[in-house]
Amino acid sequence: MDKEPTFFDFAAEVGLTKHLGGLGATEELIELCHIGEGKYVLDVGCGAGVTPCFIAKRYGCRVVGVDISEGMIERSKERAKREGVADRVEFRVADAQDLPFEDDLFDAVITESVTAFPEDKQRAVNEYARVTKPGGYIGLNESTWLKVPPPPEVVAWASQEVGASVKPLTSDAWAGLLEGAALREVIVRTYEINTQNEARGVLRRYGCRGMLGVLGRILSLYARSPAYRRFVKEVREGGLTPENLDEYFGYGLYVGRK
Ligand SMILES: C[S@@+](CC[C@H](N)C(=O)[O-])C[C@H]1O[C@@H](n2cnc3c(N)ncnc32)[C@H](O)[C@@H]1O
After folding, report:
1. Among the atoms of ligand 1, which is closest to the Cα of residue 111?
2. Annotation marks residue 112 as catalytic
3. What is the set of domains in the chain, with CATH numbers?
4. Ligand 1 neighbour 95 (Cβ under 6 A)
5. What is the pLDDT of residue 114?
6. CB 72 near ligand 1, within 6 Å
7. From the CB of 18, is ligand 1 less than 6 Å away?
8. How many CA atoms does the CB half-sphere of 44 hold within 13 Å?
9. From ligand 1's centre to the CA of 51, what distance in Å?
10. Roughly how many angstroms between the first and final C-alpha of the chain, as a whole number?
11. Mean pLDDT for each consecutive 10-residue tract of the chain (258 residues)?
12. Nearest residue CA, atom 10 of ligand 1?
């Protein structure tokens, strides 16, 4: 019997992935990682390819995007062609915990809402550090417990809301992973979630036309896939957002230098 599709299979199908803080958080991470013209950048867990294309277009960098999902890599390649940056952006399937690159290759390695997923997070961060040039930067945007311990309803909501069993860490634990990879000059910035800004952030990242395309693909998937209809039902039944969510659940930018 075929395996039940996962949240990320659906996200790849509709071509929509996101991270907390939207494009504004990407711009901040880019600045903290000193990404600019002429830099060679790796985006691990690139999803639908929005950030690699944005960096290539806006900053004139050469960018590699990797993702564990083949579907995401297909969407990313389509995006790069559509946005006219296919000559500067390359995509390939790879696991964050085992990157297929030589040591000391990239000026900066970034991940946005990715490192929360691998089984062995330290191994993933060690890999980011290994493929970064000495003096280069590693930047993470990851979901974060702002206050611990989070109550059970918040833990339940966090994993159900993203539909991908995300397991946030505290900011100390995220910073500890960077330090564990022998990175220095570690910067930590944590943020609460603002629901309106999040919605605006997605719109800004994909644009009105892009969002219409996504909506069309969601409706088409809903119409033809019983598995997707089951998934939507399960997410709906997951319950309302807990009132105290913002107190506990947010995101952080974590940057270190090799
Ligand atoms: C929440 S999405 C974020 C995607 C993208 N960074 C963005 O901001 O739109 C998480 C992505 O991480 C990818 N992912 C999960 N585990 C991974 C791993 N071990 N190695 C590489 N990518 C992974 C998923 O396939 C998915 O595309």
Report:
1. 6
2. yes
3. 7-257 (3.40.50.150)
4. yes
5. 95
6. yes
7. yes
8. 32
9. 12
10. 46
11. 75 91 95 97 97 96 97 96 96 98 98 93 98 98 94 79 72 98 98 86 88 92 90 75 86 98
12. 114
- CA dist 154 and 254 (Å) reads 23
**Which helix (H) or strand (E) covers residue 112, if one does?**
strand 106-112
Instruction: Return the closest-CA partner of residue 73 out of 110, 106, 46.
Output: 46
Q: What angle do CA 155, 158, 161 make, to 5 degrees?
A: 140
Determine whether the shortest distance from the Cβ of 67 to ligand 1 is under 6 A. Answer: yes
Q: Check: CB of residue 231 under 8 Å from CB of residue 7.
A: yes
Question: Contacts for 145-150 with beta carbons within 8 Å, 24 or more apart?
Answer: 145/169, 145/170, 145/248, 145/249, 146/171, 146/190, 146/192, 146/247, 146/248, 146/249, 146/250, 147/247, 147/248, 148/248, 150/248, 150/249
**Inter-residue contact 122 to 97 (CB < 8 Å):** no
CB of 121 closer than 6 angstroms to any ligand 1 atom: no
Task: Give the residue, by CA position, lying nearest to ligand 1 atom 13.
Answer: 45
Output the pLDDT for position 1.
41
In contact, 42 and 110? CB cutoff 8 Å: yes
In ligand 1, the atom with minimum distance to the C-alpha of 47 is 27
